[in-house]
Write a structure and sequence with these properties.
The chain has 220 residues and is α/β, with parallel strands linked by helices. It has helices at 13-24, 31-44, 53-62, 90-99, 103-118, 129-133, 147-160, 167-183, 205-219, and strands at 2-6, 27-30, 65-70, 73-78, 81-82, 122-126, 139-144, 196-199. The chain is globular and about 45 Å long. Bound molecules: 2'-deoxycytidine-5'-monophosphate. Residues 9, 31-32, 35-36, 93, 96-97, 100, 126-129, 177, 181 line the site of 2'-deoxycytidine-5'-monophosphate (DC).
């Protein structure tokens, strides 16, 4: 069983995928966390990812990035260090988006993602899972919501975690990442032709979850 969940940032992919993984007894693989770890590795080395792609490629090439499924979802390990709590900041979101536009970085991470899915039943979320990573996945969902709604959710998530931020800044960052992720040349964010579009702008979390469970059950 392979389920691919794609869509822009803040659409609720990871929270919903985690719940769906529990419900359908699948391993959850958050590919965004891998790009975030790659972005963190570059930020720690102080490089400008957009300008110095060669350095970014070499940093990511020499890094070890491991995803360890656990009861809370998964842990992300960078060079042996648990960085799960460090990768959700706005700075690392942008770094992840920038590093993910580099084809050499994508090729390396996609290879790891395919390997993780080879021997397991998985629900994998990202931007290019249905179009590129797992093109044969029998169930593909493209999850989206309006930019304002996604920014509202992200803003609440950040403030609940105690991070000081402004709604306008969160919206601007999301729009910039949408643009970055959907206009890059290699494997951009786009809806797979054979995927099901789910717009959760008008749904709360429970409604979104039960809608997705129904869609998946219908196809099992
Ligand atoms: O899903 P996320 O917000 O954690 O992803 C962070 C960034 O990583 C996102 O802006 C684009 C990139 N990404 C990608 O290019 N391909 C994926 N499969 C997952 C994430």
């Amino acid at each position: 069983m392979k389920i691919a969940i794609d869509g822009p940032g803040g659409a609720g992919k990871s929270t919903l995928s985690k719940k769906l993984a529990k419900h359908f007894n699948l391993v959850y693989i958050d590919t965004g966390a891998m790009y975030r770890a790659a972005g963190l590795a570059c930020v720690r080395r102080g490089i400008n990812i957009k300008e110095d792609t060669e350095a970014a490629i070499s940093i990511v090439d020499s890094a070890t990035i491991d995803l360890i499924p656990d009861s809370a979802g998964q842990k992300i390990i960078l060079n042996g260090e648990d960085v799960t709590a460090l990768i959700r900041t706005p700075e690392i979101s942008m770094a992840a988006s920038d590093v993910s536009a580099i084809p050499e970085v994508r090729i390396r991470l996609v290879e790891m993602q395919r390997k993780l899915a080879e021997t397991r039943d998985v629900i994998m979320d990202g931007r290019d899972i249905g179009t590129y990573v797992l093109p044969d996945a029998p169930i593909k969902i493209f999850l989206t919501a309006s930019p304002e709604e996604r920014a509202k959710r992200r803003f609440l998530e950040l403030t609940e975690r105690g991070e000081a931020c402004k709604y306008e800044d969160v919206l601007a960052e999301l729009l910039l990442r949408d643009k970055n992720d959907s206009t890059r040349a290699f494997s951009p964010l786009k809806q797979a032709e054979d995927s099901i579009l789910v717009d959760t702008s008008e749904m709360n979390f429970e409604e979104s979850l039960s809608h997705l469970i129904t869609i998946i059950e219908e196809r099992l």
